[in-house]
Design goal:
The chain is mostly helical and 569 residues long. It has four domains: 58 residues, no CATH class; 126 residues, Rossmann fold; 184 residues, Alpha Horseshoe (Serine Threonine Protein Phosphatase 5, Tetratricopeptide repeat), CATH 1.25.40; 169 residues, DNA Cyclobutane Dipyrimidine Photolyase, subunit A, domain 3 (Orthogonal Bundle), CATH 1.10.579. It contains 25 helices and nine strands. A five-stranded parallel β-sheet has the order 7-6-5-8-9, sandwiched between helices. A hairpin with an 8-residue loop joins β2 and β3. The longest helix has 25 residues. It is globular and about 100 Å long. 42% of the residues are buried. It binds flavin-adenine dinucleotide and iron/sulfur cluster (SF4). Iron/sulfur cluster binds next to α17, α21 and α22. Flavin-adenine dinucleotide (FAD) binds next to α13, α15, α18 and α20.
Amino acid sequence: MRGIVCQVSCTHLDTSHLDEYPDFISLAPELPLCTLRTSDYLLGVIKNKIRQTPERIIYMTNLILILGDQLTTDISALAGADPKHDRIVMAEVHEEASYTNHHKKKLALLFSAMRHFAQQLQKDGWQVHYQQYHPDNEHQSLEGVLSSLLNEIRPKKIITTECGEWRLHDQISRWHAHLGIPVEIRTDTRFIASKREFADWAEGRKQLRMEFFYREMRRKTGLLMTPEEKPEGGSWNFDSDNRRKWSGKPAAPAPFRVEPDTITRNVIDLVEQHFADHFGTTDDFHFAVTRTDAQEALDYFIEFALPCFGDYQDAMSDNEDWLFHSILSPYINCGLLDPLSVCETAARAWYAGQAPINAVEGFIRQILGWREFVRGIYWLHMPDYAKENRLGNTRALPWFYWTGDTKMRCMHNAIDATRRNAYAHHIQRLMVTGNFGLLAGVKPEEICDWYLAVYADAYDWVELPNVLGMVMHADGGYLGSKPYAASGKYIQRMSDHCSNCHYSVSKSTEPDACPFNSLYWHFIDRHRADFERNPRMSMMYRNWDKQKPEKREALLQRAGYLLEHLDDL
Ligand SMILES: Cc1cc2nc3c(=O)[nH]c(=O)nc-3n(C[C@H](O)[C@H](O)[C@H](O)COP(=O)(O)OP(=O)(O)OC[C@H]3O[C@@H](n4cnc5c(N)ncnc54)[C@H](O)[C@@H]3O)c2cc1C
Ligand code: SF4
């Protein structure tokens, strides 16, 4: 009897035909050995079945790993899986929770969303091995958790969907050798362009421009395309309409809120207890943590914010953290929302006359264009991309990025919102905290680490190209045709920050002059060799050269002083 039980212990048996035998208790997969009350008779039945139709009654289990940013039943790892036989593994492990100083709200969001998703899978009949985080858990890495399950379950193979960052991808690609079991890594079909498709598009191009890729994606999906294959509204891009300053009217909608349930409250306690030294706060946690709630967040955005999304896309405000942005990236990136469905929902709003074309096209471009584009670049050039530093920056990240403790109103506001919400909108990330890092010549890896840590939507594949390429221009202009460097004037034009600032935006060399002003000219001057021949920058060099030598000298001196005293600003 023992021999037979051992022989079948790593398999699942189709037991439906055995129900009539009272001796049979269970062949439940949770039990390492089948629990049989006796009997030679029953074993005879099993032996017979194995001999007659092994393919019908023996099924080799697959162990399906679902990562914290793959929280959808549409994930490719689940395709063709069988809830009766296959096992799912999900794990909260120290290695993933602490490879960077993740914002506390980001940890709470992901742990809670993972637990809710696991619960849903179990309700749907899946067998899920779920490891909740505890510092004393024996296994604190995904590999460790899997290796312990292999002994217990003895699966035929591990199946997973490709992950979103090189660090983990590199580890997973070695599991086959480390764990001694086949590991099937499937394409992440949630993206609209596959890695291969992007690589084919990029082939032979020296510089990549999002706009052209975006048009390909419009054609591919048919989003906002006429039956004649022309862009709806007569233009591919309505960005020039999307630069209004916001004066307080129309009122911006409050962000969509979900009050924490028991699972979320438990997770918040856990984060406070075990990740107390991480950046940010869990106060006022109101992120959606289920697909249903994330879908409601999308509906809320479409109804209340999308109509003004375009007009005020680049605006910033002293009094409003969220303005008309969607706040959907945390959900799209962890799998609670599907990017293509989000775009389709927005497109339907335009066809229904609920939102204007500049808003809908602008919103769709961010997801269909930028999001897919940066992901393509990441996988095309990693791991070397992360080491790029073409502007040769060496300065440490100023400490106030972690505290918000600076007299620069715009920087304080963006960092403080980041600390409270694990969120800042695109223009704050690009033209305030990013712009300052660029002008100050911060080391790319330090500022990349900051962005990866502090936002609820931050994953290496999307953060790195945005920061290293778009903001820091450290890839030599591969991603963007010119650096997004700007003086205080830009921030003044797009916000009300300057009127409440310790510094004066109209000054550039005095002790109370806006730091962005002299730092901007210092940047232009020190990178002459890099940018003078860039047609989109040549006017800046003409303006710089036109200034009196004493003025130029004063600007450089002021900037030199600021660079020596960044932490005091
Ligand atoms: C320095 C810097 C760092 C960034 N880091 C991240 C990051 O870690 N994770 C992240 O998801 N986005 C990142 N972005 C892009 C963008 O700022 C955020 O996606 C956006 O602010 C999220 O807020 P939202 O959902 O309200 O976006 P909305 O303004 O409502 O835009 C709609 C959607 O478009 C997508 N999107 C917009 N811009 C981009 C972009 N440049 N790249 C990729 N997707 C985009 C997002 O999915 C977003 O939800 C970064 C941008 C910059 C300049
Ligand atoms: S004056 Fe300068 S530092 Fe102050 S808010 Fe304006 S741009 Fe920022």
